[in-house]
Each structure stands twice: as structure tokens, then as C-alpha cells.
From TrEMBL:
CDD domains: cupin_DUF861 (cd06990). It holds the Pfam family Cupin_3. Gene3D superfamilies: Jelly Rolls (2.60.120.10). The lineage of its organism: Bacteria, Bacillati, Actinomycetota, Actinomycetes, Kitasatosporales. InterPro entries: RmlC-like_jellyroll, RmlC_Cupin_sf, UGlyAH_Cupin_dom. Residues 54-96 form the (S)-ureidoglycine aminohydrolase cupin domain. This is Cupin domain-containing protein. It comes from the Bacteria.
């Protein structure tokens, strides 16, 4: 890869839409994927990504920064938290999540989510 790479989410390398028009993950590849996910109100992993993933819970790891909106995350072991603007989160595989409130949740994700929401 070149010594300087310039990319933009305005022209992502790939767009992965969620089921039911509930949002999308825009992906740029910098030798590893970086994603910007927009989750619309009403989005829930178990309703809008699970059909693609075909797993009981999300098995992707997410390390991210919440730009706007709020999200509730519940781990398979029962641990839970709500995240919002300015929060940085590290979420291991084995969770469900959903948007809280009527504002889209936008998150920058640099975790190991290769294949996340990929058809």
C-alpha cells in the first residue's frame, strides 16, 4: 500500500445495507476495514442483521466511537450498557444491540468486523 492513502465515507469502497431499510455500513479499506454505520430508529441486530449472519447473536467484535444517537448493547452473558455521543466502546462477540430513541445512531467502527452485514 502507498505511503499516503486518502479515502472518504462520501465515496466508500463498499456499502452494506441492513434489512428493511434500517441503515447501512459504509466501508473503506485501508489495508483493514474501517466502517461508518448508520442505524435508523427501530434498528435491532437480531431483527435486521441476524437474517444475514445466521447466528444467534452478533459474532463480530466492534471497537468504535459514537458520533450521534444512542444504542443499547446486551451481551449474551447478560451484561448491558447504553452508549451515546462521544463514547468509545469495545464490544466482544456475543451480543444484541438496538437503537434507543428517535435519532439515528452513527458509529465509526474499526473493530474486526470484516464480513459484518455482508450479503
Amino acid at each position: 500500500m502507498a505511503g499516503l492513502v486518502h479515502k472518504s465515507f462520501a465515496a466508500p469502497d463498499e456499502v452494506r445495507p441492513f434489512e428493511g431499510g434500517t441503515g447501512q455500513m459504509e466501508v473503506v479499506d485501508l489495508g483493514g476495514e474501517l466502517g461508518r454505520a448508520t442505524f435508523q430508529p427501530g434498528w435491532q441486530w437480531s431483527k435486521h442483521v441476524k437474517p444475514m449472519a445466521q447466528t444467534e447473536s452478533c459474532q463480530a467484535a466492534h471497537t468504535g466511537y459514537v458520533v450521534s444517537g444512542r444504542m443499547k448493547i446486551v451481551m449474551d452473558d447478560g451484561q448491558e450498557d447504553e452508549i451515546g455521543p462521544g463514547d468509545i466502546v469495545d464490544v466482544r462477540p456475543g451480543h444484541d444491540a438496538w437503537v434507543v430513541g428517535q435519532e439515528p445512531c452513527v458509529m465509526i467502527d474499526w473493530g474486526s468486523h470484516e464480513g459484518y452485514a455482508k450479503r
